[in-house]
Specification:
Elements lengths: L8 E9 L14 H4 L1 H4 L5 H15 L3 E5 L30 H4 L7 E5 L20 E5 L5 H9 L4 E3 L7 H12 L3 E4 L4 H8 L5 E7 L26 E9 L5 E8 L1
Length: 259
């Protein structure tokens, strides 16, 4: 089990269908909810999501909001081209945590993205949506140097751990020690939640169950992780903490993850 003294507490909160789907098809992002509002509000209305999120935040009081890159950029999306970086790349592959961002008096939280391949390239800082937060990228030693140079040019912090994919246990240790984060919440089901729970890094699950069935073999589901390899890989067991009946036949299930 990953020691909570060495890392932040990590909490998942997500709306899912009765069959565990978190969206309506493959290569979906969070922006599809704006593109197809009538469809996505069958899963969770804006009012329901805002109420659910507010209640979760009041319980856990997070200092970081964490998302996976697939939440914001589809796997089949064409990446933004960046200027080629021909200078010395050595200093790029070090954690970039500008003091003016770390110590800014208005910043109270962090918004983080796990982006091991350097795909999220729009320069978003989070401040336009919430002046009390700031973006930080969690990435790897194998991303293109152009990506890191771009982040530096926009004064966007990043932390590097791992090759090809982010080393989640080590990067969360850095998040605690370097960013003073004690509690993380994430609404990224699918690959990120699957990686977190398989790495013994997910502590609690808040699931708003919607009474619809979506189906689909390729449609993202609540947890996406490698197949069980019995007996070396065991199913994750959870303990029910709370259950609430919500509006529109929805149920809020709150679980503790056992390790």
């Amino acid at each position: 089990m990953s020691n909570l003294l060495d890392r932040p507490k990590v909490v998942l909160y997500v709306c899912a269908s009765l069959d565990g789907r978190i969206t309506f098809g493959p290569n979906s992002t969070m922006f599809d909810a704006f593109r197809l509002p009538e469809l996505y509000q069958m899963l969770c209305t804006n009012e329901e999501w805002e109420s659910f999120s507010k209640a979760v935040f009041s319980i856990y009081k997070p200092d970081m909001f964490l998302e996976g890159s697939n939440m914001v950029i589809a796997e089949n999306e064409t990446l933004r081209e960046l200027p080629k970086f021909d200078e010395n790349v050595n200093n790029l592959f070090e954690d970039f945590l500008p003091a003016d961002i770390l110590n800014h008096k208005n910043r109270k939280t962090w918004t983080a993205i796990v982006d091991g391949r350097g795909r999220f390239r729009n320069g978003y800082t989070g401040v336009t949506d919430d002046p009390e937060t700031y973006m930080v990228h969690l990435t790897t030693e194998t991303v293109p140097p152009e990506y890191l140079a771009f982040l530096r040019s926009k004064n966007i912090p990043y932390i590097i751990e791992g090759q090809n994919k982010v080393n989640l246990p080590k990067v969360l240790q850095k998040v605690k020690t370097k960013l003073n984060v004690d509690t993380i919440v994430t609404s990224s089901g699918g690959r990120l939640s699957g990686a977190l729970i398989r790495s013994s890094l997910l502590d609690e699950v808040n699931l708003l169950v919607s009474p619809i069935v979506i189906g689909g073999n390729l449609t993202p589901k609540l947890f996406t992780s490698p197949e069980l390899n019995w007996p070396s890989t065991m199913p994750n067991r959870l303990t029910l903490l709370e259950i609430k009946n919500m509006k529109n036949d929805k149920i809020w299930l709150r679980y503790k993850v056992n390790y």
